[in-house]
Amino acid sequence: MRLPSGLLDTLLASSRSMVRKVSSVPDAVDVTYRAALKTVALATTVVLLFLFVEAVTDQQIMIEPMAVPRTLENDGYSGAVVSRFLVEEVRAIRQSGDRPDFLSGDSLDYELTRDAIVGFRSDDAFATLATIQVPSSSLSLRSTVTMLRDFLDIPELKISGALTIKRPNGPDNPPLYIVSLQLGAEAGIPAEPVAHADLDQAIRLSARVIVREYDPIGLATYYLNTGQRGELKELADSLMKTRKVEQRTQGLFMRGLYETTLVDKVAFFRKAIALDPQFSDVYNAWGIELFNANRVDEAIAKYSEAIRANPKNGSAYRNRAIAYQTKKEWFALATADFERASKFKPRAKTFFDLGFSYEFLEKFDPRAAIEAYDQAIRLRPGYGWALNNRCYMKAMLKDRSAIADCDMALDDQKAWEIYDSRGFSYLMLGDLDSAIGDYNEAIRRHDNAYSRFGRGVARQRKGDLAGADADFKRAKELDENITDTMKKARLEW
């Protein structure tokens, strides 16, 4: 956005004034020092200009300082403190955990809220601008921002409110703290006052009222992640009654998530799609329910509809890839979808799935899988299964750092698969005794074809041919395709 020339000239004039004052420093002062002061003045002006433009174009919702009784101010609950508390609680709800797999992405500005403004701040964010005067004027930069926003018809979205205390009759009745919020004229659901005997809890519950209005799917996610199904239904029902079409659609979607049978879920999903045919995440959730009912082809079709409605729906790509994996001839399609999912929804488990998918391709390069596991571990340090799989891939390349990966994976959990991977790593690196030791532990925990075959190779190389034959025989009993699998793993015997 370009600023009106008058305001820009004012800010530049301020910069020139600062530079002139710096330039008037006596000649006795070192020239380098004066140059440094000029640089600081220019940098300060650039920062102020940046803050000014950001304030003008800001589209976040501001929670204003609340009106509170004097007694609460004396206890440290000033209006600004309550405002910051609300902002923190709103953010805590919206960041309560991973968005479920039926949502399009991890970004808090995901597709469902494309028409909603869901950033939150308190008035403290621009307190600095209120203290800076525009040169040759009685105006502050903050008030200038306000006038410019009015001129450009950019309304400042504000939430105001008041905190009051109700003292019920009777000595045993605790006081009630009542938080009344004003969400603005465009609010789809009236903000009923929240009353609670615990002040902090009253503020937390009020934060839910704010999230319900501006990020209802975020609140639904919070309820799902915390197992509050009753609250989810109540939220869905309230949204279904609002005058905003978008919120009614979201309410129908949530109610479908709440229902327990496929028939009831689909009934609400159909109603949501009727209101918004481009509601990508409804198709995605519908596909998940079909997949869980073992109707894989129908699920793939729904995932494809979700992608058509939103080509950046990373969750739908990932879910379709999982469905493709159930059909062995479609591994290439699955891998391509995992690659798209990792681009649009870059989560640790998505990169893990991508790495694992590479392992099933006909033309398999362990380096591609290692790169995917690298990303998974970067996003989730100490990710045990990603470390285990990266260990195995490195072992195929005879990379000695494989052992360290398996060691870290074992720090996460003592699974037979990890002992098998470390045994394979030792085998590929020629440490036969260590390989046999890990294979023994893996077999003790779970008799499996991989460890039997690997131990057979180690025994064969040590000259124990009878022990090797017994292991090879048992491995084939457990998995008739184990020989081909180990050839693909680049093991020679």
UniProtKB/TrEMBL annotation:
Keywords: Repeat, TPR repeat. This is Tetratricopeptide repeat protein. Pfam families: TPR_11, TPR_16. The lineage of its organism: Bacteria, Pseudomonadati, Pseudomonadota, Alphaproteobacteria, Hyphomicrobiales. TPR repeats lie at residues 280-313, 416-449. One of its GO terms (cellular component) is cell outer membrane. One of its GO terms (biological process) is receptor-mediated virion attachment to host cell. It comes from the Bacteria.
